[in-house]
């Protein structure tokens, strides 16, 4: 591939001319109605970002319960503890399994049994893979603990015939660039029990305001996404900033893993929601295509010694915006990233560190070690299932991967 040709590392939906033209057409119904239909959900509200959605859920929960502690997995986006901190709540961390993203159930049960202050648990359907939900739910229900599903990467995933996001009490999705369906920056709140709706609605009306300037900037950025989210131009908005921050010695920013606690909460305009409405009509086809690419990778890699492929559970159907591989040795991950770094084939990583590894978060997190999350962070890479990736490109990636292992 050309040095400037770059496949996006996740299967974000590209925007087409029809999507952009939809901005100027009247909407037939609200975006929230489209989401309710797609998910089979009771209540949906669009927000500025997935982080804002999570934060507003927490603010609503503060009106329902006096408990203050939220349990999150040890391998998760740094924005999650920032939202908990901003809501004035405490963060507790639970380790995950060594070779998948499920909570270590023994560790989770111990945390829930030993602390009567647990307000909520945040199971994270990472990499589009639905978690094993039944045992987790049993632990939480026995202690009257709320379940907030983190579905930022899992739009379209299913567990036991139900969409991810409709399993717990609440959930939140991301409509950020590269996260499948997008409005460049956006999020969705889902509430599955009607009695909890008023509290979150009150938090929304209290905290979310209009910001015309911010919306104008996002609309301009949508046009930029339309132009640059394609292999011949993506290098300039993804790899070039990464090179810049690496030269500055700022690895967190290079990996897009540095965030501020004062994330925006502004209202999303109907103008921008139309972009998502245009894309949701083809969402099922896009997810089916990325699952097909994922299955091709998985079938060719699953029996290789020294390599674990994180697959969907028996009762689940993953959306697979990318495929996650775990090497048996950390040096193999380093080798793979070095080889693929400038290949343009969309090989990347989820998070570089366990959540306690980020220096800028240490003051708000428990000072504990989480060996399984650290193991995964040291050894995991991702393979893109982007619509731009050809079968020839996949075969090239597979050939290189087999040599590395």
List the keywords.
7-stranded mixed β-sheet; alpha/beta; 41% helix; 405 residues; 3-stranded antiparallel β-sheet; Aspartate Aminotransferase, domain 1
Beta-strand share of residues = 5-15%
Indicate the mean pLDDT.
95
- CATH-derived architecture of the domain at 283-404: Alpha-Beta Complex
CATH topology of the domain at 283-404: Aspartate Aminotransferase, domain 1
Structural class comes to alpha/beta
CATH superfamily of the domain at 283-404: Aspartate Aminotransferase, domain 1
Low-confidence stretches: none
Overall shape: it is globular
What would CATH call the class of the domain at 283-404? Answer: Alpha Beta
How many separate helices?
16
Annotation, overall tally of beta strands: 13
Q: How far apart lie the N and C ends?
A: 23 Å
What would you report as the Rg, rounded to the nearest angstrom? 20 Å
Largest sheet at a glance? 7 strands, mixed
Q: Please estimate the helix content.
A: 40-55%
The ordered string of helix (H) and strand (E) elements is HHEHEHEHEHEEEEEHHHHHHHEEEHHEH
Q: Kindly report the spatial arrangement of strands forming the biggest sheet.
A: 1-9-8-5-4-2-3
